Amino acid sequence: MAPETMLQEAQDKSTTKGAQTVARPKGDGVKRDSQTPSTPSKPGPGMRSDSFVFGIPQNGLEHIEREVPVSEPPPLPQNSELTYVGKPTVRYDGPAKATGKGKYTADVHLPGMLYARMVDATIPHGRIVSIDTSAAEKLPGVRAVHVIEHVYGVSELRDPKLETPSRYPIVRYAGQPIAGIAATTQQIADDAAKLVKVQYDTMPFVVERNAARSPDAPVVFPGPADAAGSAGGGGGPKDVPQKGNVHGPQRRLKGDPEKGFADADAVVEAEYFTQVQTHSALETHGFVVDWKPEEVTVYASTQGTSSVRNEFADVFKLPKSKVRVITEYMGGGFGAKFGAGNEGVVAANLSRKANAPVRLMLDRRQEHIVSNRPDSHQKLKIGAKRDGTLTAIQLTSYGTAGVGTGAGTAGPATNLYKCDNLLTEEYDVFINAGPGAAFRAPGHPQGCFAFEQAIDELAVKLKMDPLVLRDKIDESPARRVERQVILERTNWRNRREAGADSGPIKRGMGIAQSVWYRFVNMNSSCEVRVSRDGSVELMSAVQDLGTGTKTILAQIVGEEFGIPPAQVVVRIGDTRYPIGPDSGGSITAGSITPAVRNAAYQARQQLFAAVAPALGTTADNLAMQGGRVVLKNDAGKSYTLKQVTAKLPTDEISARATRAPEYSKDRLTYGGVDYVELAVDTETGRVHIEKVFGAHDCGRPINPTGVISQINGGILQGISYALFEQRIMDPKAGYMLNANLENYKILGAREVPEIEIALVENYIAQSSTDAAGIGESAGIITLAAAIGNAFYNATGVRIRKIPMTPANVLAALGKAQPEVEA
Amino acid sequence: MADAPKMEFSRRGFLKGAGITAASTVIESANALARDAKDGLSGPQAVGPDAIPIKLRINGQEHAVTVEPRYTLAQTLRDNLEMTGTKVVCDRGSCSACTVWIDKTPALACMTLAVDAVGREITTIEGLSHGETMHPVQAAFVKHDAMQCGFCTPGMVMSCAALLERNPNPKLSDVKHAVSGNLCRCGTYPKVFAATLDAAQQRGQIADLVTLNTGTERYDGA
């Protein structure tokens, strides 16, 4: 197999639906974070050569020549020389959120709107014999009932003939959608849902990964089955073998791992276990659909207005021009909210049948079942030379995405460090449980928990400082700077031997590193309008998940026009505007901001051209400087934007731009280094995280405030994953036992440690903004591993299983019987 | 073949079924309203299950609404009165997203029946700001970016503002305690703490510093 890496694979995964075009550099398979300026050549037709700021300030910035389309705006200088871009900026919709005025999908009220409830399967596996909706339909207030014909978002048999035809979809997990009911109030819809009688022919089931691997386990699918990916990644490989419930392996081989291990001076080898985590967005999956013959209007709690529009058009055989999707505010997605989903399809059918708008939001139990991060059982072996050079990596992983696929964990092992010999084999294991979905850095928190602990273990074996070992094997210039920041600003230099405390409370510190990839979605367009009164608006279908997209777009337009971001009107989250990228895989900032800047720049150039005669000059003599329009040849003359727009010959001008391709073919990754201090109570088994210091990079940060908010969130989700969260299945009944928010424990205020963040600017000269997302590499990848490493430093014991509940901690410390591994 | 077993215990179904004894207050308060609604009625009388007209005093204003006795305050606010600032997340009292004040005390609107809120002073997130002027806690949330997706934010604000009502000079541990029931999935807690402590320090002044749609400001963080 060619020395292709997870990098390419991950990029492939993000190019689903055929609608996206990812700037996908070919070849150059091992190059990461390339900081080597390429040699300039004579620009081709329609291109020009320009000089861009490049590199990391701590290393000294340089300039690099890039060939770019002539329509591209001039290069931006570094953040310190800009007025709004790169400056901490108040969230554009902060007041609307703080005052409760922001309208989420769950808040949408339309005249005559009906309320719906999803009816779902009460058994984990079986055939539906009959569905009797008559009692529900008779309930006063019920307006429409829809029984599902096809279940979306789950794996499907490669050969459907392996299964006896069935009038209704086969039930493969408890909670699988069966029908929807719309009524005049939510109570009536809920009451009616309880009146639907479903008769099942039950089938044997399995809800534990390990049990499902057994040759005599009940099979979830009677033959090979595959799941589609989503715009957020996730979804496993397709053309792989399947035996029973075991789907795979997806195998990647580079070099000669056997020889690599033979050449090693030190080898570490261990097994690691991670649990299923549910997305648990606070706003559940849901839609309001207003089906009208002339246009279907869909309010969606989604990460991709485009993905919803595409799937509605596909499912209902509608031209896209008749589907409008609106997402003004959305209450969290984390990777699980793309496309129409079963909820959207049911809501649309109900709306069509009832001839009225229908709101269908999942309830909290259903939200726990609709999506999850797969679990893992990983066997990892790493070999190294005495000086730390990695000689071989071998990873075998089994994970369950329920009735879905996409449980691979090889990303960190493949892409974090240089190693010429690598073998990874990833298996998906089907069980009768809800489907996995992309979840903030799919596969990476699991993979990193194993890989970065193994690297730490290697450092112990080689008697090297873990930071020094990483300096040796990590080629990323950004992470090198980040490790230096950690060294200088944390307590790392005072690190003690493992298990140094003699009392029952043991303290320690540890670090772990993350890697994520630069994806770009070319479906990124924007229109900028300028009116004679000086008002400026921007329009794009792109959505803001809470990451602060509205704010960074306002900053970029504000920078071009010399006006504060808050004066820019941001209209996004509506497919009536130019198309926007779906937000998955940290794709949004890097994809849409160049389109926005280009549209703003072009609108400004048009403005200058239109008003120059009235100002008695020419367009090329006008420039924006310090927030004012100046005459280049007469320093004494300057105007406000309003004074200039007042001279417009028409009421309005506008410009529209689509993202230009990446400026270079370099493959880029982002990452971070996170440092943890913790205390382990070896008597109770409780782990207290006391301090986290994160050093992260994401290209050119546009709004450091928003970036830091996201990193805080990634770190806290990572701690929550490492210590608390866990889906618990009842092996006897086949249900999720803790599908609520009191027994599915998520980190709360009292578990929040002191957090400090350092942002490392990294100018990459790839687009007119150099922006990049931070969602994935924000801490969710590293924290479990960093906590594991700190746990070792505190106790002298490796903990290879999360969540680190008191039971698992005491088992790791040899003070209690380990729980049976699921 | 097996009939579908019921998967979940319904709280409201329980309240409804146990109404005679467990929910006697419901009957009492609802009954008072029933008397209001139907002239001439006197003496105790069960109401429901049909909808009955009630009056709720919300943010200083009286709102007439017709609800079934089993309707929660959260649902009544959101669906009947279209005051959607109050969010419903878990719908069973474990996340505090629906926090409102009842007689100035934080309460969970998803665990309060609308009929039980009759005659009480209800304050929602919509009632915390005055026109374009935000409550100091809201202004501080904006200033410190104490939100991401924003779905937990109204509940967080109500909890933090209530803390400052009863303790104008809270310590960090007091803030953590005050929002210990408020779940945030985006992980905004550090900034919620900073915002609330800042609001306590500068009470009454922040609203002037950060008005609606404020532009760029200095970041004082890391």
> How many helix segments of chain B?
8
Helix content of chain A: 10-25%
The CA-CA distance between the termini of chain B, in Å, is: 62 Å
CATH class division of the largest domain in chain B:
Alpha Beta
Please state the CA-atom Rg of chain B, rounded to the nearest Å: 20 Å
State the share of residues found in helices of chain B, binned by percent.
25-40%
Provide the β-strand percentage band of chain A: 25-35%
Low-pLDDT segments of chain A = 1-38
- Total count of helical runs of at least 4 residues of chain A: 19
* Main beta-sheet strand count, sense and barrel state of chain A: 7 strands, mixed
CATH class of the domain at 6-46 and 69-98 and 520-658 in chain A: Alpha Beta
Looking at this structure, what is the CATH superfamily of the largest domain in chain B? Beta-grasp domain
Query: From N to C, what is the helix and strand string of chain B?
Result: EHHEEHEEEHHHHH
- Record the strand order, biggest sheet of chain B: 3-2-6-4-5
- Please provide the count of β strands of chain A: 32
CATH architecture of the domain at 6-46 and 69-98 and 520-658 in chain A: 2-Layer Sandwich
The assigned structural class of chain B equals alpha+beta
Descriptive overview:
The complex is a heterodimer of chains A (822) and B (222). Chain A is of the alpha+beta class. Among the domains of chain A are: 6-46 and 69-98 and 520-658, Aldehyde oxidase/xanthine dehydrogenase, molybdopterin binding domain (Aldehyde Oxidoreductase, domain 4, 2-Layer Sandwich), CATH 3.30.365.10; 105-203 and 282-332 and 337-370, Aldehyde Oxidoreductase, domain 3. Chain A contains 19 helices and 32 strands. In chain A, the strands form 9 sheets. A 7-stranded mixed beta sheet of chain A has the order 5-7-3-17-14-15-16, with helices on both faces. In chain A, β26 and β27 form a beta hairpin. In chain A, α11 (444-461) packs parallel to α18 (783-795), α14 packs parallel to α15 (588-611) and α17 (704-723) crosses α18. With 222 residues, chain B is α+β, with helices and mostly antiparallel strands. Chain B has 2 domains: 11-127, Ubiquitin-like (UB roll); 136-209, DNA polymerase, domain 1 (Orthogonal Bundle), CATH 1.10.150. Chain B has 8 helices and 6 strands. A 5-stranded mixed beta sheet of chain B has the order 3-2-6-4-5, sandwiched between helices. The model of chain B is unreliable at 1-32, 34-41 and 207-222 (pLDDT under 50). At the A-B interface, α2, α4, β8, α17 and β32 of A face β1, α3, α4, α5 and α6 of B. Chain A: Pfam families: Ald_Xan_dh_C, MoCoBD_1, MoCoBD_2. Chain A: Residues 1-54, 222-258 are annotated as: Disordered. Chain A: GO terms for molecular function: iron ion binding; oxidoreductase activity. Chain A: InterPro entries: Ald_Oxase/Xan_DH_a/b, Ald_Oxase/Xan_DH_a/b_sf, Ald_Oxase/xanthine_DH-like, AldOxase/xan_DH_MoCoBD1, AldOxase/xan_DH_MoCoBD2, AldOxase/xan_DH_Mopterin-bd_sf. Chain A: Residues 99-204 form the Aldehyde oxidase/xanthine dehydrogenase a/b hammerhead domain. Chain B: Residues 52-128 form the 2Fe-2S ferredoxin-type domain.
